[in-house]
Amino acid sequence: MFGFEDDYSFGVLQSSLHWIWFVTKCGKLKGDFRYSAESVFDTFPWPQQPTRAQIKAVAEAAVTLRALRRETMRKLNYSLRDLYRTLEQPGDNPLRDTHAWLDVAVRATYGMSANTDPLTFLLQLNLTCAKKEKARERSRHLACFCDPKTRQALLQATAFSRMFCHKHR
């Protein structure tokens, strides 16, 4: 359960970048992945200086992803697990296409090119953020995102707090 109510954060957390971080950093119990705040969420390096346009692009892709999932699950009487199992099948898949669109938008917030290895990039960014925090420099690492006042200021500054917040729809 994540305490974020905005589509931008949802988009970042649904991206393949976060998935790669999760699979690399998570614990395993009987072979099953275990998501923990300490090893995955707290160490995940968020985009440091996304522009308003980039935030909007991620939020729009996230809204599209959520709508596609909801509609497909309703239409086909699928669970979320059933829906994602369709990605294992070859051929065209709107869910795959929507995730690809989201990934392009999220990569842009990091300034990451398509041919950059995401794990290497995220590990380097994590180290950079940790060094900044250790030196007591102000950083937009996750600690900044967890602070409610800072988070609210970011959402207000981007003018998307209502437009791209699923709580208000």
Tell me about this structure:
It is a single chain. The protein is built from 9 helices and 2 strands. It is globular. The longest helix is centred in the middle third of the chain and has 25 residues, at 52-76. Helices cover 61% and strands 4% of the residues. It has one domain (7-164). It has a two-stranded antiparallel ribbon with strand order 1-2. The protein is mainly alpha-helical. Mean pLDDT is 79; it is low at 139-151 and 156-169.
List the defining traits of the structure above.
169 residues; mainly alpha; two-stranded antiparallel ribbon; 4% strand; globular; disordered C terminus
The main β sheet shows up as: 2 strands, antiparallel
**Low-confidence runs of at least 5 consecutive residues:** 139-151, 156-169
Helix share of residues? 55-70%
Strand order of the largest sheet: 1-2
Shape: globular
Mean pLDDT: 79
Query: What is the count of DSSP helices, taking H or I runs of 4+ residues?
Result: 9
Rg over CA atoms, rounded to whole Å, is 16 Å
Structural class: mainly alpha
User: What fraction of residues sit in β-strands?
Assistant: under 5%
Number of domains: 1
